[in-house]
Structure formats: C-alpha cells, structure tokens
Write a structure and sequence with these properties.
Elements lengths: L1 H8 L7 H51 L9 H4 L20 E3 L2 E9 L13 E10 L9 E5 L4 E4 L18 E2 L2
Antiparallel strand pairs: 1-2, 2-3, 3-4, 4-5, 5-6
Length: 181
C-alpha cells in the first residue's frame, strides 16, 4: 500500500506549485496591460465624442442663425433644442439640449453676448450676437486629457494643458491652444 501511495504522489498528472505561480504571473501581466489599453480607449472615445458634439453644436447654431435667429445665434443649448414653430423640428438633439451639458465624461458650457436691439427669435428667445462653447473633461486624465472649444467662427481649438473656459473669445482664436486640423 505504501508503494501505491508513493506512485500517486510522483504521478506525471497535475501541476506543481511553481507551474501554477508562473501561470498566475502571466495572467496578472496580461490583466495589467489590458487595463491600460482599456483606459486609453475610454479617453480616446470621450475626446472623440467631445469633438463630435462641438461639431453638432456649431452646425445647429449655423442653422439657427439662418432659419430662426435673423443672423443671430441661440443663447443656450436648451434653446437650440426648442422646436421651430413652422417645422416642429429642433436644431439640436434633445440629449444635447441641456445647460450645462455633461456627455461622455466632458462638461460643455455655452455663453454669448445678448443682443438687445433686435426682436426675438422664432422660438421666442433673445438671440446672441456671438457665442463660445467649451468642453472640459469632467475628470482630467480619466475621462479625457485634452480641452476643446469653439466659437462663432466655427473653428475647433484644442489644448492639452489648460481649459478654455475662463478666456475663450466669442470670435477669433483664443490666447492659448491650437486649431484642430
């Protein structure tokens, strides 16, 4: 009986402790690499969504000025989401028509200088002469790395260091950052 027990302990079937530790080490390395790739993918997705949202806002503002604002712009994102009385269609999707807008890890804020010498827009609001929109990551480094902005010129600007929020002009290029190509 002692011989059969020894035979079972030295059997070629099964794994040794060293083999199991090597496998666990490999799994740990693969998990850490995949988490870094996942984080980078989330940041890229948030930044791509921010740029697409700024394009949508610019397009909505241009359509608003042509169809509803008498060559003036909507003062808020919510006013871009108000349907036109003639068509019943809004200029901006309802999920984007919130002030301030939080989307895909970015915070969007729109501002403009109100015009007092003209009448109301077709949606009943007071238009603005020009506007600026900033997009800042909600959690810098995690939800996004770069800061984005646009204005009446409909050009997108990017900065990897500083937010455009305090000093983005309503027309022309900002004092920092670069134009997105």
């Amino acid at each position: 009986m002692l011989c059969s027990r020894r035979a079972r302990l030295s059997s070629p079937f099964g794994f040794t402790l060293v083999e199991l530790l090597i496998v666990l080490s490999i799994v740990g390395i693969l998990a850490s690499v995949s988490m870094a790739i996942y984080r980078n993918s989330r940041v890229n997705a948030g930044e791509t969504s921010a740029v697409a949202t700024l394009h949508a806002i610019n397009d909505a503002q241009f359509a608003f000025s042509q169809l509803c604002g008498n060559q003036r712009y909507a003062p808020t994102l919510a006013s871009l989401g108000t349907p036109m009385p003639t068509s019943g269609q809004a200029f901006l999707s309802p999920d984007l028509a919130v002030d301030p807008l939080a989307k895909s890890g970015y915070q969007f804020t729109m501002a403009g200088t109100a015009v007092t010498d003209t009448g109301l827009t077709c949606t009943g609001g007071t238009p603005v002469e020009s506007y600026q929109v900033t997009a800042d990551p909600g959690r810098p480094g995690l939800s996004g790395i770069r800061y984005f902005a646009t204005n009446t010129d409909r050009v997108l600007y990017v900065d990897a260091i500083k937010s455009f929020a305090p000093d983005m002009p309503e027309t022309g290029p900002p004092a920092h950052g670069a134009e997105m190509k």
